[in-house]
Write the structure tokens for this entry.
Amino acid sequence: MRWREIRVTVGFVALHLLLALPAAAATALPAVAEIDGYLVRVKGLVDQLPAPPGDDGEIRGYLTGCVERASFLRDLAASPATEQSLLFVELKRFTAFRNTAKDGLGSLTPLGRSLLRAENGEAWPALGHYLMDDYVRGLVIRKALYERKYFEEDDPKQANLLEGWLNSRFDFCRTRDGAQAWYRRDGVSAFEVTVRTEPVVLVTRSTDVAVVLAGGLLYNFLPAVGQDAGDPFRAAVHDDLLSRQVKRVGLRAAAGAVFDGAGPDLLVGAGVQVRAISLWATYQPEETAWSLAVGVSDWRWLKRLRPILPYFGGP
């Protein structure tokens, strides 16, 4: 293999590894650090009580109960397998415990009243705001929009590093609270910058296969989303014709390597994407040849064909 071919191959492997790395995303759930902050504050309040609790026994029981509940919540938040709904359910149980325990408190000493105010007014808001109606509604709606925007069934946190950086730099691509524009739904932008490696098959002149680094700007036809009437933690998605059938369109450009049997050659192109399919006009400088090509940016839709694959010799 020629040195130029080796460099092309190694370069595309390196790019693919870079683009495969997930971009970091801000958490929409109580983070371990926030729960730790609550625990430190409340443990500090417990330490202010005298060793024999005396008349402050009830407030000690309340605060130590809060510590126990928060410790369990912290362990759940630190678990890699934690689901969003599980953490919210435990947070709601924690809230119910606090409300019931506070209602059961009798007459408190001045110190007890001071500690109760400190727990309720200084420590708890860091966790309690996650259960506010507006926060839950926004979280549920945005989660549904992100799942639709970054391909169905995809985790929105799995945008690659370069895409995450680019989309955070352009204002019209960022999610913005309270922003009103024709291309936004609940603050989520319909525009998306994509940079991905993908396979391409030439369909004129030859059937050679290529691998390209493709970048572009897509517009997603986002559905209307609200909260489910029976479960506020689930989204009610209402599609129109475009969001259901077309989903996304955009313009793209690419450069990569085509494998024609004699080794990889440079391939450049421009294309149009509809849903996960791209139609490319490609050019090979070494052969001064143009060709049409088809690319697929998301292979997960093939799962829908699994029931009929046996009829075509598939698994």
